[in-house]
Amino acid sequence: MKIITTLFATAAMLSMASAQTLSIKGSDTLGAKLVPQLAEGFKAAGNGGVKFEIAAEGSTTAFPALANGTAQIGMSSRKVKDDERTFCRTKGIYLKEHPICHDMIVVIVNKNSPLAKLTKDQIAKVFTGQIKDWSEIGGTPGPISIYTRNTSSGTYKDWQKLAMGGRDYPSSSLKMAGNEQIAQEVAKNKNGIGYVGLAYSKTAGTKAITVDGVEPVAANAKKYAYARECYLYAPEKPSAEAEAFMKYVESDAGQNIVRKVGFIPVKDL
Amino acid sequence: MFDPKKLIRKGLPKGHFKDAAVRSLLAGVTYLVVIIAALLFGKIIVDGAPVLFKAEAPFVDFEFLTAKNETLHVFDDALGNRHQLPAAAYSAYLDKHPGEGIFNEQTFSYSGGGIAGPIVGTALLTIGSMILALFFGICAAIYLSEYAKQSPFIHAVRLAILNLAGIPSIVFGLFGFSVFVLAVPIITSTPADRSLLTFPLFFGNYFVSFQGWNSSLMAGCATLACMILPVIITASEESLRAVPQGFRDASLAMGATRWQTIRKCVLPFSLPGILTSSLLAITRVAGETAPIMFTAAVAAKDDLPWQGLKSPFDLLSSQVQALPYHIYTLAARIPSSEYTQRAQYGSVFVFLVLVAFLSAGSMILRSKLRAKLKW
Amino acid sequence: MSQEEISLSPSHHRFQKRGFSCEKAIKYFFASNAGLTIVILVLITIFLLKEGLGFFPGYQRELEVYRIAGLEFVDISRKNLTAQEQLTSVLNRAYYAEINGQAAREMKRSKEASALFNAYSEQTGPTRDLVVNNSQAASDPKSEMLAILKTNFEKQKVKALASLPATPHLEKNERADLIESIRTRAVDSTEDPPLVAALAAELAAAQEKYAVPLQGMRATIDSFSSAGSELSSLVSEMTESVTATKEKIQGADILEKDRKTLLAAAASAKDLAEREKLTSEATASLAEKPDVEGPIQRLMERRADCVKAHQALQKTTGGILAQLPENLRQPDARRLLKVARATWPLFIADLEKTPAAIHAWKYDAPVPLTAAISSFLTGKDWVTGGEWQDFYGILPLAAGSLMIALVALIIAIPSGIGAAVYVNQFASPREQGIIKPVIEFIQAIPSVVLGFIGILVFGTLLRDISTWDSLQWIPGFPIEERLNIFTAGCLLALMSIPTIFSLSEDAINNVPSAYAEASEALGASRFQTTFRVVVPAAFSGVLAAVLLGLGRVIGETMVVLLVAGNRIKIPDFSSGLSTFFQPCHTLTGIIAQELGEVPLGSVHYRALFVVGILLFAIVLAINATAHHFVNKMKH
User: Fold this and answer.
1) C349, C367, C385 - which closes a domain
2) B199 DSSP β-pair partners
3) Domain membership of residue C37 as a residue range
């Protein structure tokens, strides 16, 4: 009997001990490029022992993962919603918000499109499906193909609020898994239009659209219509690794990586 | 009144041209399929082989197989030379050349380094699930072929096997997610709220809590094992039945028990057959993506599964990268450009070579077995 | 073991005695393993149902909120507004098609010139950036370095200029001038080359010129477009108020749930202080019952306004059709105008019906559970994660799955069965030795690899082929999206060919040789034997093969997730065969795409399980039919 007890006890001990990997989940905007590079920078800065797991499936995935304890840090390209915060609270996790960068949602079209400027109104009409053909806004005639993110994305929801006045996407829109994928499809489709995070707006074959006369470059972040802040969320009492990582992200070295990847450091605004 | 000569056909038979046309149409269709398959393999080999092989000895670029997966940095130095470096080498480069500017920098996630993580992860998933599936599958097959008589139970088992074999892999994904990730029991001192049922153990502060294993190697192996179980059972039963009845009769006549007969006279002769057909099952397990998407796989993980573990149990309860999921990520999440081709086609090539080896091995072994074991 | 039994067996027979109890145990052990398959199947069913069945009550509540909060009311008006916007778009397109059709030559010239320039800048971009970045003062330019960079740039430039796209609509000297202007262009110039700019201006002038005779049409369209503004502002006003109500109701629902979870957490908390904290939080989050009556009554008061706006719209709209030009010159424009004329009566009829619908609408009409079920099974929208209202309608997904399966089977049935007949009946043993392993190996290719090929190679290839001039007679060419039903169908066909091939081949092989021998003895030719005797005899086996192939196609996930294009919309069947070149989404794809991202236990999460149940049922039914045919064959 004693042996069995010990066995069970060991098994139980074992099942608890897995805390030193740093699991980060959430937004694709942050998680596809920026956070992996921050992690690599963090390790290069003398924290080689920390083990990262990064899953970037969309901002909505961050909070359930934080609540369940399957992630120590959540990435989000939008602010946490009240019900998500309460949900975490009920699991004993108080969320702390760390703004890490500013982002601009950039409208991109195919490189060969003659359009370089659009108004906010035109963009809203294109993305809600009221304008269906490029000729209606002065482009080369052809049916507009709209590429959007999938529904779990923070960008998807931010865009609906910022640019579409809360109206639904038309069913003709194509839902893509990530920013890179949108950029790639737009680069390959001469009738394509889509939106991506600032870091992805320089993809070859695409062209960033000037909105209401404001060019989507980092310097214009204040004037630009579709700017937003991106966050990392961590529990109020984070693990030592998570805390060290958050410190690194907010440090100058971390913010330099933010700038290099193509986002706008927090302090620049 | 009846000329027998008319009955003998002369020259080409009637409808010969029609027949020839139909025949060549069928041949055309068949070879079209073969050619399309050849083109497909050709494309992958042409683009993927250069990643793995090189001109000078030892001809194989082991780095791609053994290096970790990293972000790829592409940039020009001040002299206009283009560099492609994975993250670690990139930061080394920056340290070595301080103050020199770099230009036109582009980064490509998941495209630098090698694919050691996914390969190891797939190997672990395959081994784990095959151990489970072979154990339960062979046992079930023994029952079906050695013990079972016609009964409602057997009928139900056969029906279940038939139905399990047809279930789409994504439904296995849903099943694995709702059962192994969220519902199976675990011993813990802090049961989660979503636990279906919790009861305390008789010692310490521990509970048995039905809260699942989270997304982990264990959960993935169990899901895959369930998926492959019907295949293993069917194949094993076939091999067991191929052992001549005389072997059993002789053994039983010598006074051996049924179990002894099975152990000494049936299993040894059918084992090669079982293992051969399970090689084919391995190709299926290794290639499935949908069941592990939610139960085991993670897109980026920078250590190999066994590094930095506190206990062996950690290995089982941690997520792993897997080759098919990695290919999904490479296909869906990163752009295709000249810099990402290496990672993309290289991974697919390695994967295909793996699958080709397994299935060719299975085919060859099977034909050898057939030639050897003739009773 | 009873006393009697022991006495029956000879006591010295050690072997048998030990064997007795042990044997039984071993047998039961194996039996329990066999039973495991049943357990797994039952577990799959139970857990799918457990998660899935909760969907319908949850969805019912969501639909109830949709009604109580008044969103449904707003949607009545919004539907007409959307229809009006769509019609405006059609008219606009007709208008621009007329202009652009006339200015086609200028447009082509301008397009070609800028395409040429774009191709050049695409190729030289990186080296150019290097020169520009390095020549800026901040980067401390070194002259010898700059010289190297500049030679690099010149080299790249020469290379790029040697491989420019063709410009069939530009004069020879124009092209030469353009290339010359590109060649002599300053490195850091950001202006377009003169010809590109000139052609763009030419195009604009031409468009302006051709617009002059269409001024009447423009004014008509504008007046039609602005006719909706009253309704539009009313709708957006109401939208705001109903969204607020909905949020309140949902907030109260969530708070109520939170309170319960907090209380539950408090009950199980060990730490006394923690427990008190949680309890106090729970009491604090007690929601006051949201006021539903007030806002809805205010909304109902707007009914008259709504009706008035509709009537105004109807009045303006009625006259529009007569004011439009009788006919337009360009074929595209004519077609669009015809579309507009055809849909016009429907639009008017809808407008006429609306006031009655507005008055008949009741906010307190109950939403029965059957409404949730039928809305799921027959719903045309799958809208999730939106701001307005989530709908879970299965039709677009089922339609996508079916269309893809159709394409796959149309390709796979002839080639799979044809190959099987050929290999079994006509091929030499050597041919068999080549064909069979290759097709078997196709079966071993993991689906994700096929998806990878589809997204990286096949889709692009298909689109390039579709732009060939010699293929323009095919409906739907040139295709708009490289990821579409046809692309996915082709790849799935490749996946199902091995299944169909090997099972059909087995079936043909299993036809007793006596059939063939008898047929040949009667003087039938080889072909008559094959097609009149052997294949018909194997028919049910071949049918089973096709059905199993169908099961595989419907259940396949990775290929459709990567290649089908992920547009959640019922394909537009009115476009004939080109429907097959539209993107779609599938039952399997939606689970794979959305399961990872939904909060556990939410309605959306459960909806995905219901999709899983449906998929499970469909595939089981297909397989059961297939096995029915297999059994028929055996007897």
Assistant:
1) C367
2) B208
3) 3-52
